[in-house]
Design goal:
Blueprint (H helix, E strand, L loop, with lengths): L2 E10 L2 E10 L10 E7 L6 E4 L1 H9 L3 E2 L1 H10 L1 H13 L4 H103 L1
Parallel strand pairs: 1-5
Antiparallel strand pairs: 1-2, 2-3, 3-4
Helix pairs in contact: 1-3, 3-4
C-alpha cells in the first residue's frame, strides 16, 4: 500500500486549516487517513505548524512519500534532518547522543530565526498601527479646523445680522412713534365725533 504524507484541508471557506496526515495515496484528499501527524495553519504570520516529529520520522522510515508541501513542512520542522541523522546513526557515522545533540542545536537555531522573524513582524505591525494613528489624528485635526472655520463663519454672520438689526432700531422706533401719534389723533377725532353726536 503506497503511503503519502500530505495535507488534508479543513476550516471555513477562505480560511483554510490543514491536518498533516499519513494516508493511502489512493484515498480521497479529505477522506480516510492512517494517522494524524500534526496541523498547519497558514492564515497567521508566521504560519503555525504543530508536528509530531518522531511519528513523521517513523512513517518516513517505513517508506511514506511526502507531497511537495508536506516535504517543505517536514523540512521546516526538522523531521527530514532527524531522519538523515538517524540514518547516520544506523550506518555508524556517530552515536545516537551526538545525533540528538546536533538536532537540538538545530532546533535552538531554528527557534531563534523564528523568533527574530516574529519580532520583525510585530515591529512592522506596531509601525503600521502608529502610522495609521497619526493619519487619523491628522484627519481629525483637519476636520476640527474645518468645523472651527464653519463656526467662525456662522458667528460672523450672526454678528452681522445683529448689527443690521441694531441699525434698523431707530427707524422702527420712529415708525412706532408715528403710528402711536396717528392712533392718538384717531382716538381724539373719534372722541370729538362722539361729543358732537351727543350734543
Amino acid at each position: 500500500m503506497p503511503v503519502k504524507i500530505r495535507l488534508q484541508r479543513h476550516g471555513k471557506k477562505g480560511k483554510p486549516f490543514y491536518w498533516i496526515v499519513a494516508a493511502d495515496s489512493r484515498a480521497k484528499r479529505d477522506g480516510k487517513f492512517l494517522e494524524k501527524l500534526g496541523t498547519y495553519n497558514p492564515t497567521v504570520v508566521p504560519a503555525e505548524i504543530i508536528l509530531d516529529i518522531d511519528r513523521a520520522v517513523k512513517w518516513l522510515f517505513n517508506g511514506a512519500q511526502p507531497t511537495n508541501t508536506a516535504r517543505a513542512i517536514l523540512k521546516y520542522k526538522g523531521a527530514l534532518l532527524k531522519k538523515h541523522l538517524l540514518v547516520g546513526v544506523k550506518k555508524g557515522a556517530f552515536s545516537e547522543e551526538e545525533a540528538e545533540k546536533k538536532f537540538q542545536a538545530w532546533l535552538v537555531e531554528k527557534e531563534a530565526k523564528i523568533q527574530a522573524h516574529q519580532d520583525e513582524v510585530d515591529a512592522e505591525r506596531a509601525k503600521e498601527k502608529a502610522d495609521r494613528l497619526e493619519k487619523e489624528k491628522a484627519v481629525n485635526q483637519a476636520r476640527l479646523e474645518a468645523q472651527k472655520a464653519a463656526n467662525a463663519e456662522i458667528i460672523a454672520e450672526a454678528e452681522k445680522n445683529e448689527a443690521a438689526a441694531a441699525g434698523n432700531e431707530p427707524v422702527d422706533a420712529v415708525e412706532e412713534a408715528l403710528k402711536s401719534e396717528q392712533t392718538i389723533e384717531e382716538a381724539a377725532g373719534t372722541a370729538t365725533t362722539e361729543d358732537k353726536t351727543e350734543e
